[in-house]
Design brief:
Structural class: mainly beta
Helix content: 10-25%
Shape: rod-shaped
Distance between the termini: 51 Å
CATH class of one domain: Mainly Beta
CATH topology of one domain: Immunoglobulin-like
CATH architecture of one domain: Sandwich
Number of strands: 13
Strand order of the largest sheet: 4-3-6-10-8
């Protein structure tokens, strides 16, 4: 007997909502039955009805948005890599569905990186064509912006998400508490024959950072999305 592969959660949500659509109703929070044609209903409440879906996160571990936003965590292991290699590339993706004549757009906000390891880095965020294109050597477009409109406002009935890939690169030139140290000492004296002699000694050392990845504060990228209707000019 063949076993069917369990579909992703967003597909199950859409298929379940189709039952309600066929009946002209859907069940809201608490079991309340709501008419789909109720124009006073907040559209955000229809997220689980199949009309819209948005998720973001590392590939294979995305999370669905709640109340129009979702966060993408950056773990402590990433800070350790940044400290050791002076550069790190973090790949993540978004998944977008918006049915009917509603477009979907989103923006990504970087956090306050604080004063530890990520705080000493320069960060760049940009879209890439695929997950494997997110490397520390990747060059972003000059006009790279942390925004996207993956679904236009033209009519759509697809239940397949539009997947987009993003790359965050962090690079450290020098940590604030590291550098080089050099010193020299010179001593002048007279030997028993009253001849002046001198001795010089020099030493140097490299001072490494004491910043600890274990003390890195929690970082999250915040992704906010919204749906929109066609403009008058587009209709």
């Amino acid at each position: 007997m063949k076993h069917r592969k369990t579909p992703p959660s967003w597909q199950r949500t859409l298929k379940l909502s189709a039952v309600g659509i066929a009946a002209g109703v859907f069940v809201g929070a608490g079991g309340t039955t709501l008419a789909l044609w109720n124009t006073e209903l907040d559209f955000a409440a229809q997220t689980h009805s199949g009309y819209e879906y948005f998720a973001a996160g590392t590939p294979g571990a995305t999370k669905a948005a709640v109340d129009g936003q979702v966060t993408v965590p950056i773990n402590a292991e990433t800070a350790a890599t940044l400290k050791e290699q002076r550069a790190v590339a973090i790949a993540f993706e978004t998944q977008s569905i918006s049915q009917g004549n509603l477009g979907l757009r989103y923006e990504i906000e970087q956090p306050d990186w604080g004063d530890n390891i990520f705080g000493a880095a320069d960060t760049t965020l940009f879209r890439v064509g695929a997950e494997n294109e997110c490397t520390v050597d990747a060059a972003p477009n000059a006009d790279a912006k942390p925004t996207s409109t993956p679904v236009g406002a033209e009519y759509s009935a697809t239940d397949e998400p539009v997947v987009e890939h993003w790359c965050l690169i962090a690079v450290v030139d020098e940590f604030p508490d590291e550098g080089g140290y050099a010193n020299a000492a010179k001593v002048t004296a007279e030997d028993p024959a009253d001849i002046s002699v001198e001795a010089t000694d020099e030493w140097q050392a490299e001072v490494t950072t004491v910043l600890d990845p274990a003390e890195e504060p929690r970082h999250e990228l915040t992704v906010r999305y919204e749906t929109f209707r066609p403009s008058v000019a587009d209709s």
